[in-house]
Amino acid sequence: MISINNLSHTEIQKIKVACSCLFSAELAGNNEFLEKLEFDSVKNAFIEKEKRYNPDFHKDEPEAMIIKKKERYVRIRESFEILKNHIKEQDGSVGGYDSTRGIVIAVGGAKGGTGKSLFAANLGVFLAARGRRVVLVDLDLGAENLHLYLGERSVKHTINDFLNKRVKTLRELMVSTQYGLSLVGGGGSKLGAANIHFARKLKLLNAIKKIDADYIVIDLGASTSYNNIDFFLASDFGIVVTTCNPASYLDAYNFIKVSLHRKLDRIFGPESEFRKQKNKDIDLLIKDVTMSVNLKGGNLIGRLLKKIQDEQPEYITFISNILKTYNPNVIVNMSTDESCATEVANRIQKVSQKMLSIDVGYLGSIPYQAEIERSTQDLVPFVSTYPKGILSECINNMLDSTIPPAPCYNPPAVSKPTSRRRNSCEKN
Question: Which class would CATH give 103-401?
Answer without folding.
Answer: alpha beta
